[in-house]
Design goal:
Strand content: under 5%
Number of strands: 0
Shape: flat
Radius of gyration: 12 Å
């Protein structure tokens, strides 16, 4: 569980500035739609995980889409 929280926090800290740049570059509507899709993919990975190893990529995917 600790690795899930660490990957979520780290990816959130990395992707907040990147999402601002992407919104300026590509437009807020397109970035928001991509974030919703990526967040949904992360939730899918979290729901259908085979092992606890899959929690970290799912947490990373959700945190990347969170901002």
């Amino acid at each position: 569980m600790k690795s899930v929280l660490a990957s979520y926090t780290l990816s959130l800290a990395v992707f907040i500035p990147i999402s601002g740049w992407m919104a300026d570059r590509f437009g807020t509507r397109r970035v928001f739609a991509s974030a919703i899709g990526l967040f949904t993919l992360g939730r899918f990975f979290a729901a259908y995980r085979a092992t606890s190893i899959c929690w970290s990529p799912a947490g990373f995917c959700r945190a990347a889409a969170a901002p």
